[in-house]
Amino acid sequence: MKLQWDHIIHYIDGLDSFEFPDQLLDIHEGGRHEQLGTFNYLSYTDLSYIEFIDVFDKERLKKSVTGEQRLSFAATLERTVYQEGWKRLCFRTDDIEALNDHFISCGLSTIGPSQMSRTKPDGQVISWQLLYIDDDRMDRELPFFIQWGEEDESRHEQLAPLFQPLRVVDITLMTQNKNQFIQNWTDWFNAKYDGNQLLIPDGPIFTLMEGDKESIEAITIAGIDHPSIEVHGATYHFQA
């Protein structure tokens, strides 16, 4: 069972008319999550990506975020009152059932794995399974976990034309309880801790800040020489 960073979600109100400033990132139309009332655009670096998300039907979303969907990314939008910015992290695995067993062995409750899908503009249906940690004691939006319906090799072949010569090298997270945060990530996700950084293989560094809230603060993208910018509530840093 492996665990890798898959994507980060950035909520933008008015996504259908959005262009990334100075066209620093290529953005491609993703599709619609019909059952959730959301749609997305995607910016790939490799198999990992930034997901820009918006809502086409808030009433549908509100009705959908019950039961297994109460921990979904769509429910996060509702809980944060549609405030723009960074929302959630997602990690991918090659064995979501084994990951579920691991979380249960850690004393955690889970929701899933549950089957999901979306329809691309060309009519192709993309499917995946999702898993959530169900812990009411947490005061942050926890990462969630995905297993795609196709192997990485097949997805790489299909998506390679969309890849940019860029890499997300750092994701900065703020927490009110640094020690507990580190303990959770090392126990649950097998992360390694080094200084103020949490490390998961084949992904960005997760830099921890201690502060007055639980949040995703910023990402750093390598391969672009440009000053830092704030885009619809989300901070982007760049390095050449």
From TrEMBL:
Taxonomy, superkingdom: Bacteria
Domain Glyoxalase-like: start-end pairs: 5-189
InterPro entries: Glyas_Bleomycin-R_OHBP_Dase, Glyoxalase-like_dom
A Pfam family: Glyoxalase_3
PANTHER family: BLL2707 PROTEIN, GLYOXALASE-LIKE DOMAIN-CONTAINING PROTEIN
Record's protein name: VOC family protein
Source organism of this protein record: Macrococcus brunensis
